[in-house]
């Protein structure tokens, strides 16, 4: 585990970047020549499956506060296999002056790379204002498993304002671009009959696999509030709404077993 | 711009096939999420700020002269539901047929040749607006209005809702509709400078899920 010394927080909030670089080690495994946490973003190496290197993001529990800007940047070189997880849920918390916090995730996958990005849920706490920006760039033969779960408020709590955009390109072409805005201050109707309709947990599971080009999974309705939708490229997106984080995870876990090979 | 051309394009009687689509209202009525004027208004407001904004920005960008093929790929990425992608292309093909007859223009012919199975409707709408002498903001207004006008009209048919109440819903949404069109046009301008990532990608997970539920029904009043 490599952790940079904590940077004293400037008045504007914490700026911290965690960097991960995974490469195929030439012996059928994956090495991590760069594993550098910073500030509240600490990284721990774990045992991955088979040829995979595992990394867990720890200590993200208390961040991001309003005004913070956190970034996780991971690259997987040709043929590298990387599993990224987090030790606990991430709580979006209010800052002192009500300024928004930013959380950026950038994943770059080169040819033949495979990344599983499976963080714990993001909980939007009352009074918080968080902008999440996830950008994934895939080479044409890269494979990706990505899960995002957003929970509106802790138990029985009103949510904060959460804006989360996920942009995935494959071979430079757009594959998926989705932005969700919810909570007080979001554009009108966010919780209405064309919005979350009272659900307090929303999530998606994205599986990108070049094998889907020949054999795309069919669209499937997974209950009243979840569906698996094949995208215009070799990928399937499972979108689910649920009453709480636990039920959301059940749906996404089942989808993961069904679509991730 | 010509105000009269805008009226022709936005008119519900313009033969572009939109009447066959409910914009998700049929699924929402069946699930009980729309059951009166108030819930219709909530539905339309949510759709306007998600799918409506995204469609309006794509239309504005096409009207501003961005490459329709690039925008069509961006529209695909913003539409995870295959049922909604199919509906958008069908509507695009029907609009293009009407547009080529109404405002003959080489750009419309090129679009038809490049997308024999239809391009996404907002992209066609933007190219059509340009052919009709309209600007990006006009195209955004039409797309934003369609995003709520379709569900409102459909709900009158689905629930027997009083048409006066449905018109009242649309009138109350007018200030937000103007704001969405302005934001969409601004984003289109930004996309000319910075590329299509500047276009919004506002989405509603429930509309995508419900579109797949709706597509599974054996009998439907509306195509989407």
TrEMBL record, chain A:
Pfam families linked: UreD (PF01774)
Top-rank taxon: Bacteria
Chief location of this protein within or outside the cell: cytoplasm
InterPro entries noted in UniProt: UreD (IPR002669)
Subcellular location: Cytoplasm
UniProt KW keywords: Chaperone, Cytoplasm, Nickel insertion
Protein family per UniProt: Belongs to the UreD family.
SUBUNIT field: UreD, UreF and UreG form a complex that acts as a GTP-hydrolysis-dependent molecular chaperone, activating the urease apoprotein by helping to assemble the nickel containing metallocenter of UreC. The UreE protein probably delivers the nickel.
Function description: Required for maturation of urease via the functional incorporation of the urease nickel metallocenter.
Protein name in the entry: Urease accessory protein UreD
Protein source organism: Streptomyces amritsarensis
From TrEMBL, chain B:
Principal location listed in the UniProt entry: cytoplasm
Assembly and binders: UreD, UreF and UreG form a complex that acts as a GTP-hydrolysis-dependent molecular chaperone, activating the urease apoprotein by helping to assemble the nickel containing metallocenter of UreC. The UreE protein probably delivers the nickel.
HAMAP family: UreF
Keywords attached to this entry: Chaperone, Cytoplasm, Nickel insertion
Subcellular localization(s) per the UniProt record: Cytoplasm
Superkingdom of source: Bacteria
Identification of the protein by name: Urease accessory protein UreF
Family, as annotated: Belongs to the UreF family.
Ranges in coiled-coil conformation: none
Lineage start: Bacteria, Bacillati, Actinomycetota, Actinomycetes, Kitasatosporales
PANTHER family per record: UREASE ACCESSORY PROTEIN F (PTHR33620:SF1)
InterPro entries reported in the protein's UniProt record: UreF (IPR002639), UreF_sf (IPR038277)
Gene from which this protein is expressed: ureF
Secretion signal span: none
Main function: Required for maturation of urease via the functional incorporation of the urease nickel metallocenter.
